[in-house]
Design brief:
This protein has 291 residues and is of the alpha+beta class. The chain is built from five helices and 16 strands.
């Protein structure tokens, strides 16, 4: 049997203040990736807007009338659906600032090659640190973790801060995810020293660990460029199901293209048997709230 291989494209973007410009630019990157044979394109977190959570706010409810907010369906999803259908590619819509049922979410939408929405995922873990004041802007996601059956394989999306939580990666792996995309907005902040060590190395390293522990391909797609006090480092990458970096972007805007082997993940799982030898009866403390 031929091996199941998929060509992924990670659209490492710079964002402007204009939502219309960002949408047009995202569509142009999808068009260009399709011309190079890409089968699934992933955009970064909040690809349609500047990274506004670096400014301290007060409450998500104060942002409902902001020009940064969109709905589903809405401007962003219509543009992505059309781009997916026109190019015959799957599109993972990074994430948008979604207004729904009186709440504001950080939401990724997945489209098939015909432009049909396969589903959406709302960011579960919301950070709240200096220049990442996301709890002032987003409600906690309520979709649970999602795995989408597609013509290319079983795909999952987790968003930025979710990448630091092994529970999220394991949850989608147990639901059969073969490849996980992490749309991201992360970088360094003027005036804050990386006293723990390199943030970028930790960021990449934790996701490589998720790939190894779960036998699945991991793709991290970051934004790039300077926005106010933040410098987004780019560094988008693809690693295989044993944590090997297949391709890595630099700091500048580009579409990172890489062919991945989904059957390799099955071989890793069967060979190392991490799932077969799990002891769920011992893991009760994982769901107990501490502190």
């Amino acid at each position: 049997m031929p091996r199941r291989k998929v060509i992924v494209g990670l659209a490492q973007m710079r964002m402007s203040e204009s939502m219309d410009h960002n949408l047009e630019h995202a569509v142009s990157l999808i068009d260009g990736a399709s011309e190079q044979g890409v089968q699934v394109v992933c955009l970064p977190e909040l690809f349609a807007t500047p990274y506004f959570p670096q400014r301290e706010g007060s409450s998500p409810h104060d942002m409902k009338d902001s020009d940064l907010v969109d709905t589903i369906p809405g401007r962003a999803t219509q543009a992505l659906s059309t781009a997916a259908r026109k190019n015959g590619v799957m599109v993972i819509g990074g994430s948008i600032y979604e207004l729904a049922e009186g709440k504001l979410f950080n939401t990724s939408v997945v489209f098939d090659t015909k432009g049909k929405e396969l589903g959406r995922y709302r960011k579960t873990h919301i950070p709240h640190d200096e220049n990442f004041f996301e709890q002032h802007y987003f409600d906690k996601g309520d979709t649970g973790f999602r795995v989408f059956d597609t013509e290319l394989g079983r795909i999952s999306v987790l968003i930025c801060y979710d990448q630091w939580f092994p529970e999220a990666a394991r949850a989608v792996a147990l639901e059969g995810a073969e490849i996980v995309f992490y749309p991201t907005a992360i970088g360094t902040t003027q005036g804050i020293r990386q006293k723990e060590g390199s943030w970028q190395q930790a960021w990449e390293g934790v996701m490589r660990g998720h790939a190894i522990a779960n036998g699945m391909v991991v793709c991290g797609v970051n934004r790039c460029g300077r926005e106010d006090k933040m410098s987004f480092w780019g560094g988008s990458f693809v690693c295989d199901a044993f944590g090997k970096i297949l391709r890595r972007a630099g700091r500048k805007e580009e579409v990172l293209i890489c062919k991945v082997d989904l059957d390799h993940g099955k071989e890793v799982r069967e060979g190392w048997r991490f799932f077969d030898n799990r002891r769920p009866e011992c893991y009760g403390s994982l769901v107990e709230r501490k502190g």
